[in-house]
Design brief:
The chain is an alpha+beta fold. The chain folds into four domains: 1-39; 42-73, no CATH class; 77-136 and 143-153 and 274-372, no CATH class; 167-262, no CATH class. Helices cover 41% and strands 15% of the residues. It has helices at residues 42-53, 67-73, 126-133, 150-157, 167-178, 185-196, 203-219, 221-224, 239-244, 246-254, 263-266, 276-292, 298-311, 319-325, 329-339, 355-358; strands spanning 13-18, 24-28, 34-36, 92-101, 104-110, 115-121, 141-144, 162-165, 227-230, 233-236. It has a five-stranded mixed beta sheet, with helices on both faces. Strand 7, helix 4 (150-157) and strand 8 form a beta-alpha-beta unit.
Length: 372
């Protein structure tokens, strides 16, 4: 035990019996002041909480068979671990979102080794993507799965950044509509081309694939325009093949399928063609945590994702600094009431993922939570 000093004169104190509650009483040898000493163990308890949250351990495995742990952990659930932009410029960033509910997604930026930033939103809109991107310096290349709203967001936030469409996600979309065993010749050719476009290793091979794909689109254009009537309603006969076509046509038109082959970008080293690093290194780990601790409320699932992301940043703060600097539910409520200017839900709460609400939480200065 550390030496106890008198809070009045600074002299050494010695034990002087116990209080009626059983706590150790101390008495100063110099001035005669008497009192008890309390120790702040909140940092240690936060460490225990995070060790449980980021592991497979159950609450029943904790001291007190869970009841004591739940009582002590209740102090840490209100904390919101927020990203702290470092200003580092990355060559490649992987961006993806993990859905926690029908109307709640956490967007994540990952550099292949560490989490760079994250953002909670109601859906993958361009506004939400831009809110995630804006505090991060523009990388040379961003790899994504082609989610809704991403293209317009990257044009506004990172106008000079090149986009690489994840080839496996593009292939999966074609397979979803055309199936892996198409019955029609048009579907067989489309599926074969979708398998081949993941193989080019040179720009010449990529250009040859694009030429063949455009020829295929022109050859089957009239066939896919065929219509039929079902219950008196007019619809396209081959609707599923028509839905599969944009999965390749859009990235071909945008020039995002073969960015990884651009000589101007590959001079510093090879570039990824899929977003496997974030799928396996982040999303899979988050799904394991949510599965290990299934039964958490929606907001606690969000905070579990936030905690994992924060602890896998480049320089997470020590537990004591986290408790001192990170916002809580009360801080967020105060910011919402003070700064919200966006439309509200029927229950009066702010819309999730609204930039006006969450801007202060994704801070750009060291002191984002203090109000003048």
């Amino acid at each position: 035990m550390k030496r106890v000093k008198c809070p009045c004169c600074g002299a050494a104190m010695r034990r002087n019996g116990r209080t009626t509650a059983g706590a150790q009483r101390w008495r100063c040898e110099s001035c005669g002041a008497s009192g008890t000493v309390s120790y702040d163990d909140s940092a240690a308890r936060l460490g225990e909480f995070l060790a449980w949250l980021l592991s497979k351990a159950t609450q029943a495995d904790m001291p007190g068979r869970g009841r004591t742990f739940r009582r002590l952990a209740a102090d840490f659930w209100p904390i919101w671990p927020m990203p702290e932009p470092t200003g580092e410029v990355h060559r490649v960033l992987f961006l993806d979102g993990i859905w926690l509910a029908r109307s709640l997604v956490v967007l994540i930026a990952y550099d292949g080794e560490r989490v760079v930033s994250w953002y909670m939103a109601q859906s993958e809109t361009s506004r939400a993507w831009e809110a995630l991107m804006s505090p991060i310096p523009a990388p040379d290349v961003v790899v994504c799965d082609g989610g809704t709203g991403f293209a317009s967001a990257v044009r506004r936030a990172w106008p000079r950044t090149r986009v690489q469409r994840c080839l496996f996600h593009a292939f999966s979309q074609v397979r979803r509509y055309a199936t892996s065993r198409p019955k029609l010749q048009a579907g067989r050719e489309l599926y074969a081309l979708s398998v081949e476009f993941m193989r080019p290793d040179t720009l010449r091979q990529a250009d040859w694939w694009v030429e063949r794909y455009l020829q295929r689109c022109g050859f089957w254009a009239d066939f896919l325009e065929g219509v039929s009537y079902v219950d008196g309603r007019r619809q396209f006969t081959h609707e599923r093949l028509r839905k599969a076509r944009p999965s390749l046509s859009r990235p071909v038109s945008a020039g995002t399928l073969f960015t990884y082959l651009d000589p101007g970008l590959t001079a510093e080293g090879p570039l990824p063609r899929t977003d496997n690093p974030i799928e396996g290194g982040v999303n899979a780990q988050l799904r394991d945590i949510l599965r290990n601790h299934r039964g958490l409320s929606l907001m606690r699932r969000v905070k579990a994702v936030f905690w994992w992301c924060y602890m896998h940043t480049e320089n997470p703060r020590p537990a004591r600094e986290i408790l001192r600097s990170m916002p809580t539910d009360d801080d967020i409520g105060l910011l919402c009431r003070t700064y919200t200017v966006a439309p509200k839900r029927e229950d009066g709460g702010p819309e999730w993922g609204d930039r006006a609400v969450w801007e202060e939480l994704h801070h750009r200065d060291p002191y984002p939570f203090w109000l003048d």
